[in-house]
Specification:
The complex is a heterodimer of chains A (95) and B (477). Chain A has 95 residues and is mainly alpha-helical. Chain A is 40% helix and 9% strand. In chain A, strand 2 and strand 3 form a beta hairpin. Chain B is an alpha+beta fold and 477 residues long. The chains are: A mainly alpha (95), B alpha+beta (477).
Chain lengths: 95, 477
């Protein structure tokens, strides 16, 4: 499998990354290099082996259902670009 | 030519936990903006999610209640999209391996029963809230809701009318509140439905579906689906094609409209979240949860119908919520199974009407189950006529210190079932109503009822009506 320039610009758009045509070409070549490596891995016969979702074979630890986090809104909003009436303000979003 | 409608529902049920699904922030409703949004919820760099055990317990309860498979191992995935009320840039959800799969719910529309199959139910976090008004051209973001635990419950496209969709949504709502995993408050958004709707000619392959988002009342669900069905049929009949889309329902106009969206907005690029390890649910854990589950509404419905000889309608009404079911069972426990139908009538009739009028929950009923049972025993043993019982009930409702017996005694409401006491009243009424007697003898049944009424009135409502009937018939023969 290999990616086209169109694939790369689509992925960049989905990830909200602006790239120039030169960057797109370089990125495509790098990504295709990675995919070529993955193809080597895929050549290994893994029939009957359950895929892992995580590199370490351990399971999720669970947390008791208790409220442990205090209200730190004032601290958080002190480092926010803009706030009003307790809300974070962002450029207008129209649905 | 006719059309066939195909509907599937996706429901987001907010789980009843104290803290969020991946953080220890509170989730109480109505807090001031961003007072319940911790570092994890607002996605500060370096934070890590830790899964709330109780959210998993809720999912297991649900899986057991709908007879589904509970995955011994399930995976959390990142659903990637950009929106300011989703500060991480992805929602933690489940994709390939949901915690619950399969199972289903039996619904009833009219006299017909139908089994709606569930595809899956998965755990995920809610997003925050965007406020578009009043911020001089900017959008305000409240992240209190971000990270609230949700169970997204997805059906197969098994429903074929808005009535079936509403019946399913109501059955699901009743179930999640019954097992206590969701408070079911639709105004507050704790239970909201998305409907996937398509139409086709009978026998044709599935049509293209459109998804109506965020329906937060059963009425809107029905209106939105009906509108959408008609809209799609019109489009096709006028020669246009249906394009897959996400639409919003506007309750003011009763119409659905397409959300503006880019063609690749649905490319979520799911992948396993490296911050979370696989969720393991052992058989022992499932057994432990199962042992804590209450009797389920459908099982209870069958039990009530068979043990107490109640109609399917009565049994369904009495198991609509755990509160009414618990109250009814408490009444029957004192009044006895032989009086179950009488108990059902009083609970579903007078009691529910009074609770609704005063906007009270069963737990706050001024008439406790034991006091209502006390009154029902007096109806059953003939002390109280059903007419005077209404007066007793009223007294029990307004003065919680009274019992049926004390009210009957104090007001002299004891029913007269003594023939020797009733006969003189009947004789007097017959003598005074010669015309009605004539009419009855001439074959007018109405005249008989008028005479019964006169006797009841003369006895101040205390005469046993059945006995009045019998004695009157005898005398007029």
């Amino acid at each position: 499998m290999s990616l086209s320039l169109d694939d790369v610009s689509r992925i960049a758009r989905l990830a909200r990354i602006e790239i120039s045509p030169a960057e797109a070409t370089r990125t495509r070549d790098q990504l295709n290099g990675i995919l070529a490596f993955v193809e080597q891995l895929q050549a290994v016969d893994t029939a009957g082996i359950e895929p892992m979702a995580h590199a370490v074979d351990v399971v999720q630890r669970l947390r008791p259902d208790t409220v442990t986090e205090p209200d730190r809104r004032d601290d958080f909003q002190a480092i926010a670009p803009e706030t009003e009436a307790g809300l974070y303000l962002v450029p207008r979003v129209i649905e | 030519m006719s059309w066939e409608v195909v509907i599937g529902l996706e429901t987001h049920a907010q789980l009843q936990t104290r803290s969020k699904i991946f953080s220890g922030a509170a989730i109480a409703f109505g807090a001031a903006p961003n007072r319940q949004a911790c570092a994890v919820d607002i996605a500060l760099p370096g934070v890590l999610p830790v899964l709330n055990r109780e959210a998993v317990v809720c999912a297991i309860k649900f899986g057991l209640a709908v007879g589904a498979n509970i995955a011994p191992r399930s995976i959390f995935a990142r659903k990637n999209y950009f929106y300011p009320d989703l500060p991480k840039g992805y929602q933690i959800s489940q994709f390939e391996t949901p915690v619950v799969s399969g199972g289903g719910l039996t619904i009833r529309v009219g006299d017909a029963e139908k089994f709606v199959h569930l595809t899956r139910a998965h755990l995920e976090e809610d997003a925050g809230k965007s406020l578009h008004e009043d911020f001089h051209g900017k959008t305000g973001i409240d992240l209190n809701r971000a990270g609230t635990p949700l169970l997204e419950i997805v059906t197969e496209p098994d429903m074929c009318s808005s009535a079936e969709a509403v019946a399913y949504a109501k059955a699901l709502h009743a179930l999640v509140t019954w097992i206590g995993i969701c408070d079911g408050n639709m105004q507050e958004g704790s239970f909201r439905c998305d409907a996937n709707v398509s139409v086709r000619r009978p026998g044709a392959p599935l049509g293209t579906r459109r998804e109506v988002k965020n329906l937060n009342s059963f009425r809107f669900l029905q209106q939105a689906i009906d509108y959408e069905i008609q809209w799609q049929i019109n489009e096709i009949e006028e020669g246009r094609k249906i394009h897959q889309a996400t639409v919003l329902f506007d309750p003011d106009t009763g119409e659905t409209r397409t959300m503006r969206s880019k063609e690749d907005a649905h490319d979520y690029r799911y992948f396993p979240d490296p911050d979370l390890l696989p969720l393991e649910i052992t058989a022992a854990w499932i057994d432990e949860v199962r042992s804590g589950l209450p009797e389920l509404p459908q099982a209870m419905q069958q039990r009530l119908a068979s043990d107490y000889a109640l109609s399917p309608y009565d049994a369904a009404t009495l198991t609509a919520t755990r509160e009414i079911a618990g109250y009814f069972e408490a009444v029957v426990a004192t009044a006895g199974a032989t009086n179950a139908k009488l108990c059902a009538n009083w609970v579903m009739g007078e009691l529910v009407a009074r609770l609704n009028r005063d906007e009270l929950e069963f737990s706050a009923s001024p008439v406790s189950a034991a006091r209502l049972a006390g009154m029902i025993l007096r109806i059953a043993d003939g002390t109280l006529s059903s007419k005077l019982a209404k007066e007793v009930f009223e007294a029990l409702w307004t003065d919680t210190a009274t019992s049926a017996d004390s009210v009957i005694e104090a007001r002299g409401l004891r029913q007269v079932s003594d023939a020797a006491a009733i006969e003189p009243i009947i004789d007097a009424v017959l003598a005074a109503n010669a015309k009605s007697v004539e009419e009855f003898r001439a074959g007018k049944d109405k005249a008989f009822n008028a005479l019964v009424g006169q006797v009841m009135k003369a006895s101040k409502g205390k005469a046993n009506p059945q006995q009045v009937h019998d004695l009157l018939r005898k005398k007029l023969r």
